[in-house]
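User
Take a look at the entry that follows and flag anything odd:
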Amino acid sequence: MPQFDPPYPGESLREDVMPEFAMTTAQLAKMLDYPQDQLAAVLSGHAPISLELAQKLEAAGLGAARQYLAEQAAHDKWKAR
């Protein structure tokens, strides 16, 4: 069975969650009280989703923290191979 690159959680957030709620990066950062530059780095794949960000997303009703962290771990594991 061929291996595949698991989706990067920042990409899922950018492509699936944000459009559903018609949010920009600036709006999401403000809503989460999270630095916009750090959020932009996550959305562009230049930084991992942290526990803090995952918890803020969950508290805002934008997905389960456990799911974001599991996606991050799967992606990191795939890249390490």
